[in-house]
């Protein structure tokens, strides 16, 4: 599965990585963060997501009717899980036993969903490799363009140097690892679960909404594990 994980990195995870950059720059001025968010989203909608969505539509033709039905069901379960999570109140102190059990049940459901999606990924490694090859040139251009945007809005330390405490590269590298860590293991799954019937605008809005949720849940113990319980080793 290592090849398949690398496969979607430049294509789909790049989209999520760009949105994650805005959360990393939280300590910069609000106006600058908003400008970065708008520019990133505009670039994604104009250059990246149309290609990703078209690739996902082509991939849909490779799926059996049974696999398509499975994905419809998995998306519905994900939506239900998301709504349930939104309705949960974050405990002010130590969570109760009931809250712990509810959290564990949600994590288990997430594992079941991702396990089912991984089965479809496993059945279509060759198709996913073909997608990677067909978009190689575009992927390289995206990397170049996004690097320029990152540099434009990269927070500076008090001495005006890029990165943290003037150590160029260290902070920026950690951003990359953060973005990849968040999506790294889920790249193929998220691509497969993408709904090809949705528009670029809808997908962009959903991605941004998910990132904002991650930002809002940062700092709470146990809040990030629900999304990682279904990963593979």
What would you note in describing this structure?
The chain has helices spanning 2-24, 30-60, 65-87, 97-123, 125-134, 136-153, 170-183, 187-193, 200-217. By secondary structure, it is mostly helical. The chain has one domain (2-86, 97-227). Helix 1 (2-24) packs antiparallel against helix 2 (30-60), helix 1 (2-24) packs across helix 7 and helix 2 (30-60) packs antiparallel against helix 6. The protein is flat. Residues 1-9, 164-185 and 219-231 have low confidence and may be disordered.
Contiguous runs where pLDDT drops below 50 for at least 5 residues: 1-9, 164-185, 219-231
User: Biggest sheet, in brief?
Assistant: none
Please give the share of residues in helix.
Answer: over 70%
Beta-strand proportion: under 5%
Number of helices: 9
Radius of gyration: 18 Å
The chain-level structural class is: mainly alpha
The average pLDDT value, as a whole number, equals 75
> How far apart lie the N and C ends?
10 Å
The structural domain count equals 1
Describe how the helices and strands are arranged:
Elements: H1 2-24, H2 30-60, H3 65-87, H4 97-123, H5 125-134, H6 136-153, H7 170-183, H8 187-193, H9 200-217
Helix pairs in contact: 1-2, 1-5, 1-6, 1-7, 1-8, 1-9, 2-6, 2-9, 3-4, 4-8
Short description:
With 233 residues, the protein is mainly alpha-helical. The protein has helices spanning 2-24, 30-60, 65-87, 97-123, 125-134, 136-153, 170-183, 187-193, 200-217.
